[in-house]
């Protein structure tokens, strides 16, 4: 099987998440029209499939946030990375699949740990930042987290005017 089968499996599993279905090797196989062994060729276990789903979502996040930077993430200051994170979270382009790390109770702790490791380069702040600057960047990150979660969970997502007001407040915080 080729990488297009792997991509089809991941897309099908994310469709299950988006529709509120339960992701398993079997349900994913049914969703994409493969046998369970066909799915297992690419993902030996459900855990491997779930980790790949987190990576698929975060690969998209990385690409979208990197597009907003002037240089690679490791070469830009924390303020620019946090702004890219804010811009992505305010874009309104997230959905239920962005909560994939929370969808399996048994794997939740491992998937959250993996999520944190992957997102840390964007939002983890250097220890040597002055306290006031660090606090402002943390506040911006928490604003972004809140918008992201509201959109992903579809629970009181902000409308365009509210997004603009949140952005204005975040810009004030970033300006210091």
Automatic annotation (TrEMBL):
Residues 24-43 bind DNA. Keywords: DNA-binding, Transcription, Transcription regulation. Pfam families: TetR_C_28 (PF17937), TetR_N (PF00440). SUPFAM superfamilies: Homeodomain-like, Tetracyclin repressor-like, C-terminal domain. InterPro entries: Homeodomain-like_sf, HTH-type_TetR-like_transc_reg, HTH_TetR, Tet_transcr_reg_TetR-rel_C_sf, TetR_CgmR_C. PROSITE patterns: HTH_TETR_2. Residues 3-61 form the HTH tetR-type domain. This is TetR/AcrR family transcriptional regulator. It comes from Kocuria oceani.
């Amino acid at each position: 099987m080729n990488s297009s089968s792997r991509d089809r499996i991941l897309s099908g599993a994310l469709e299950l998440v988006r529709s509120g279905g339960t992701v398993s090797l079997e349900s994913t196989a049914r969703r994409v029209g493969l046998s369970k062994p066909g799915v297992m060729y690419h993902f030996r276990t459900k855990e491997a499939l779930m980790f790949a789903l987190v990576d698929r979502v975060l690969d998209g996040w990385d690409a979208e946030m990197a597009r907003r930077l002037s240089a690679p993430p490791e070469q830009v200051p924390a303020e620019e990375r946090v702004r890219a994170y804010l811009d992505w979270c305010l874009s309104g382009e997230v959905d239920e699949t962005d909560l994939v790390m929370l969808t399996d109770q048994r794997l939740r702790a491992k998937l959250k740990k993996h999520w944190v490791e992957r997102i840390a380069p964007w939002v983890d702040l250097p220890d040597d930042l002055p306290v006031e600057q660090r606090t402002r960047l943390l506040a911006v990150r928490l604003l972004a987290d809140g918008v992201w979660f509201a959109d992903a969970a579809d629970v009181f997502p902000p409308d365009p005017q509210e997004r603009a007001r949140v952005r204005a407040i975040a810009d004030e915080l970033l300006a210091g």
